[in-house]
Amino acid sequence: MADRPQGSGMPEKGTPEYDWLYGGKSQSPPSDSTQRVPTQGAAASGRPDETRVMPAARREERAGGGQPPTDRRMPAASPPAQKPKPKKRRWRPRLRLGLIPLLLLLVLVYLAGVPLYHWTQIEKVDAEPSGGKRPDDQPGTNYLIVGSDKADDLTDAQRKVLKTGERGGTNTDTIIVLHTGSGGRTMMSIPRDTLTEVPGEGTQMINSAFASGGAPKLVATVEALTGIHIDHYVELGFGSVINTVDAFGGVEICPKQDMKDPLARLDITKGCQDVDGLTALAYSRSRHVTALSDLDRVARQREVISALGDEALTPWTFVNPVRYWKINDAASGAIRVDEGMNPIDLGRFALAMTGDSQTCTMPNLSAPSDPNRIIADPDRAPALFTAIIEDTTVPKRACTPTGRAR
């Protein structure tokens, strides 16, 4: 480098200032002078005055508070991978695992719940006889079925057809003992014209016991006549027959002759046919067309009851919820049971009313005192009564449709 002219304001050669500024070797600067920082890098390698380029920081880093520069040779850290959102699946019923058991449960609840609900709507009566000694308990179960003229459950249209008022059920045309047990099922009718000893009244027609003392006196009279212990009492009104038959959509009857009975409002022809509730009731009440009158009537009453039982057992009764409801509703609207009966007893009664059973009329003879009345046959009736009492097979000769000897 050329010598600089003197007097130009620059330190003179040989002075400490000159040596400190330009690097002289003449002498060291004083101890209190500013010390020169040793050069590094390129300057130390013999290129003291070479301009050095400082690495430029990225604008974003300078603006971010002076964070150290990122090494561009290192790949930037990728953000954490996000789990893919699960696809929404359409709901499909799992037929094998969930839906079928649920449907079965609902069906069972409905089949059990409907009768239990209607059980609460059934009227209960006191049928326990008062006073006197009753027969001891016997094997099997014996139901006393009574058909009354109770008509307060009829509609106005039904009363108009039947020409009846709102009677409270003081008379009975139907008295049936239904026995179930190991000896089989037997349905024995007791004609209403049967003369027997009525407690407190002497010898009377058996239906007078119901008219004067209701269920308790009728139970006591039947037990005294037959020796059969009555376990449960079931009373059916007019409406129960009409409405129950209509709920089933009709029942089949098979009259053996043309029947025209104005008093019963019946007009049908011979042969099997489906009839509605009003016709079924008239058919079971008619007693002025056939030769044996009341004896033929009790046989037709059992025929209608058996037809109802056959309809109740059809699968359609249980798979059709509307039909099932109507049947239970109709049956509960006009039935009365004893206070000791529970829902299970009523269910057993309903099952006993269905299927095959022996149907009989109490063996009988014309009453010596009145040919229009009957009495229990002293020779044949005890065999039928004993079979029911002991829960054994009923002898065929003692079980006939009219109760008369074959």
UniProtKB/TrEMBL annotation:
Keywords: Membrane, Transmembrane, Transmembrane helix. Residues 1-90 are annotated as: Disordered. InterPro entries: LytR/CpsA/Psr_CW_biosynth, LytR_CpsA_psr. It holds the Pfam family LytR_cpsA_psr. Residues 171-311 form the Cell envelope-related transcriptional attenuator domain. The keyword Translocase does not apply. The keyword Cell wall biogenesis/degradation does not apply. It comes from the Bacteria. The chain crosses the membrane at residues 97-119. Residues 25-38 have a biased composition (Polar residues). Residues 47-63 have a biased composition (Basic and acidic residues). Belongs to the LytR/CpsA/Psr (LCP) family. NCBIfam families: lytR_cpsA_psr. This is LCP family protein. It comes from Nocardioides baculatus.
